Amino acid sequence: MLTYAEAIRVRRSIRNYSKQVLDAKLLNKINNLLENPSKGPFGNTPRFILVEKPEARQQQKVKLGTYGFISNAGYFIGGCVEKFEFAEVDYGYSLERIIIELTRLELGTCWVGGTFKRKDYEILLKTTDSETIPCITPVGYKAEKKSLRERLGLTLTDGSKRNPFEMHFFENHLENPLSFNPEDKYHNALELVRRAPSAVNKQPWRVIKQDNKYHFYIFRDKMVGNTKNTDLQKVDLGIALAHFKLGVEEQFLKGKWHIGKPGLCDLEYVISWIAE
Ligand SMILES: Cc1cc2nc3c(=O)[nH]c(=O)nc-3n(C[C@H](O)[C@H](O)[C@H](O)COP(=O)(O)O)c2cc1C
Fold it and tell me: Cystine design at 140: which of 17, 171, 192, 220 (Cβ 3.0–4.6 Å)?
């Protein structure tokens, strides 16, 4: 099985799925992951369900549409979390940890933010007024061939491209970029942040190191539409925190999340990690 760092490196958004059914053993493993989600850094645990598409169509009269972005997916993971200022961060964190486990099971996924029918999932998840559904993902085996949409270059972005390390990670202030040092275990954890998926591949994470603290910020991009339901760039930050934490855990580093007031720059502050 792949390590977390390896799984993070090989994961790609899969938009075209094989029609192969998932066997009972695998479905069991997926359901196990969904029944035991990680608590987010802000303390909320989202809840998730696995939906098999034809079944959902017959029993619940829902279509699970994704407006053509995803082809042939037979299974979807939907989820919800209690609404609050950082709900999307906890959701992104929790679902990305599941997505990395699914990658280790050789399954494909794709974060879907704006382009799905939320109503269907509200019915299936039986959400209350205080819960929100930030994103979903299909899950299944990747198709051998790329979809027509992919071949025509109609998918939103080239997911393989990432900005250099120095564009995202700094020491003390934003004018002082960090250069990647493979000997530094925290640089390795930040490198996993750099590999993270993000809405429209905008990579909005910025991290400022200050002594033993790592402060996480959002560099907002107005191009990323915040639907009335969800703040996709907060989901991106949650995903980044999951990658960072997996890097920390896999290298046996110790520390804790801390909500502080670093005041080091004008960007939108999210949370800090204090290394022991
Ligand atoms: C919060 C979030 C929402 C996304 N929403 C969509 C979407 O609605 N449709 C889509 O095709 N891809 C969506 N993506 C996938 C991104 O475009 C993709 O992660 C990014 O381009 C990087 O590519 P990669 O995942 O292959 O590394 C979303 C990703 C994230 C993190």
Answer: 17
How far apart are the CA of 159 and the centre of ligand 1, in A? 8
Domain limits of the chain? 4-145, 165-275
Q: How far apart are CA 254 and CA 53, in angstroms?
A: 41
Strand positions, DSSP E, the chain: 47-52, 75-82, 108-109, 131-132, 137-140, 169-171, 205-210, 213-218, 255-258, 268-275
Residue 255 CB less than 6 A away from ligand 1: no
DSSP letters for 21-77: PPPHHHHHHHHHHHHSPPPPTTS---EEEEEEHHHHHHHH------TTSSBS--EEE
For 143-187, what is each residue's pLDDT tens digit? 987 766 666 666 655 667 999 999 999 999 999 999 999 999 999
- Cβ atoms of residues 25 and 260 within 8 Å: no
Tell the residue number behind the tokens 């939907």, with chain if given. 78
What gap in Å lies between CA 20 and CA 83, rounded to an integer? 36
Phi (first) and psi of residue 271, to 5 degrees: -165, 165
Please state which of the four CATH numbers 3.40.109.30, 3.40.50.720, 3.40.50.360, 3.40.109.10 is assigned to the domain occupying 165-275.
3.40.109.30
pTM here is 0.94
Whether the CB-CB separation of 251 and 244 falls below 8 Å is answered with: no
The residue whose two tokens read 């704006």 is 114
Q: In this structure, are residues 209 and 246 in contact, taking their beta carbons and an 8 Å threshold?
A: no
Which residue's CA is minimally distant from atom 22 of ligand 1? 159
